[in-house]
Amino acid sequence: MYCPKCRTQYIENIKECSDCQVPLVEELPEETPLEKIKWVALIPLAGEVYAEMVEEILQKMDIPNFTKSDWATSAFNISSANLVGAKVTIFVPEENRDEAAQLIEELLGNK
Ligand SMILES: [Zn+2]
Question: 47 and 13 in one domain?
Answer without folding.
Answer: no
